[in-house]
Amino acid sequence: MSAEKRKALGKGLGALLNDSVDVLPYNKNTQASQQPEVNDLGSVNEIKIEQIEVNPFQPRTEFDEQALAELSDSIKKQGLIQPITVRKVNNNHYQLISGERRLRASKMAGLKDIPAYIRTANDQQMLEMALIENIQRENLNAIEVALSFQRMIDECSLKQEELGERVSKNRSTVTNYLRLLKLPPAIQASLRDGVITMGHAKALIGVDDPAKQIFFHQYIIQHDLSVRKAEEMVRDMQRNTVKKEGKQPEPLSFQVQKIQDELASKFSTQVKLKVNPQGKGSIEIPFLSEDDLNRILEMLDW
């Protein structure tokens, strides 16, 4: 990608659309190869919804059904105010660049045609535009943002500094989001579903043992800890770890560590495996309360 286009991306989605793609006036009787290129970004075209396929690079995986229904009702009464943006693949075939929520709501409203900006863009631009647009949405959950950041780094070959420039965020913010993807899947799911907040997740990132992360994650939920209390809990744990004296146990092998992590994830608690050189050992499954014990016993079919 040229330096000029990279600079445009740094200005955000609007600059990307203005500087690197053209608008094609839609005419159903004109072949794609014959359509003249213009630079009028105010040109809106009515195209058939059935001719639009969703963006394969769309990073957003979940849509609020109630919010979609409300938008659909608004579209029925007022029409679609903000056009979607598509790229022309071939004659009478378009691919969505941005506006999947509007497209879904328009389908729910029973529209056959939809107003759209028609642009040309290659797959690289498609991915970057879709990711940037979604990252800028306020209602995107933290895991979706983190996954979008990671995709921009992996698939667009960006460094964290470059990514920060493109989405108007400093490097530390980008780093904090990316670190969320190193948390165990159970914690990521809780963050995605709104069970815990970004603040809770950041506190858990400070715990270097996945089994302990799972344990504290469960404790935070069961005791409805605030972010501040969660941070204090992690700090206290780290202080106690530093104060411990005596011989430290031998580190677990990779295979045993993997089993321990999987058990911790399964039982949502800090499972401990102890194995001696002869291969004998024990499994310790702590619980936080009588209810927590019953939960674990049910999982064991006790």
TrEMBL record:
SMART domains: ParB. The keyword Membrane does not apply. InterPro entries: Chromosome_partition/occlusion, HTH_ParB/Spo0J, ParB/RepB/Spo0J, ParB/Sulfiredoxin_sf, ParB_dimer_C, ParB_N. Belongs to the ParB family. Keywords: Chromosome partition, DNA-binding. It comes from the Bacteria. This is ParB/RepB/Spo0J family partition protein. Residues 45-135 form the ParB-like N-terminal domain. SUPFAM superfamilies: KorB DNA-binding domain-like, ParB/Sulfiredoxin.
